[in-house]
Write a structure and sequence with these properties.
Structural class: alpha/beta
Strand content: 15-25%
Radius of gyration: 19 Å
Distance between the termini: 16 Å
Number of strands: 6
CATH class of one domain: Alpha Beta
Number of helices: 4
Helix content: 10-25%
CATH topology of one domain: Rossmann fold
Length: 195
């Protein structure tokens, strides 16, 4: 990779938090389409109001996927309303909001305020919430694998920041390549085409 002595630093970040459960999962379905069946576990059986949803941040790498996932969650939650419920479909739309860099800063502040007061329970966001924004959420669901270990630790820091317990769920594709033990050390790894 071209590293020379003194050009890099080892970064050690603690990932041991007793109040946070790390849950890596392999995707059984694609997350590139309009539906996200692997995330059905996050939906309660019946939704009587915002209090039935655990404050959760769903993360995606692309704004388009954020929009698609937000729409899917709203659609699915509408199916979980009790028959004859007083909850309107508009209220369901207000419980799930998206958050990304193209949203106006005043609207971003309004979304964060709604999350704090409990009217919003699901936020679907891009990496923009990972920098300098404190969100009171219990769970983080990374629909796309984080780009780096540091990014994963940053997401973990958002979950259960009050110490009350939470989960960091990271979904990965089954075709993700596992690195062999002898390839993990950069000084001993020789790419297959150079052997």
């Amino acid at each position: 990779m071209g590293f020379a002595a003194g050009q890099f630093q080892d970064v050690k970040l603690t990932i041991d938090r007793t109040d946070l459960m790390y849950c890596p999962h392999f995707l059984s379905q694609s997350v590139e389409g309009p539906t996200f069946p692997d995330l059905a576990w996050s939906l309660p059986d019946v939704v009587h109001g915002p209090q039935d949803l655990v404050r959760t941040l769903f993360t995606c790498n692309m704004i388009e996927k954020v929009t698609t996932l937000c729409h899917w969650l709203v659609t699915e939650l509408k199916h979980h309303l009790p028959h004859g419920s007083d909850i309107s479909h508009e209220l369901v739309k207000q419980m799930v909001l998206l958050f990304h860099s193209l949203i106006d800063h005043s609207d971003q502040r309004a979304i964060l305020t709604a999350l704090e007061n409990g009217s919003v329970r699901y936020i679907v966001a891009t990496i923009c919430v990972n920098v300098g924004i404190n969100m009171m959420v219990m769970n983080i669901v990374c629909v796309d694998i984080p780009h780096s270990f540091e990014e994963m630790i940053q997401w973990a820091g958002c979950a259960s920041c009050d110490g009350s317990g939470g989960m960091l769920v990271i979904y990965v594709s089954r075709d993700l390549k596992r690195v062999k033990e002898d390839e993990r050390r950069l000084d001993t790894y020789i790419p297959p085409n150079e052997q």
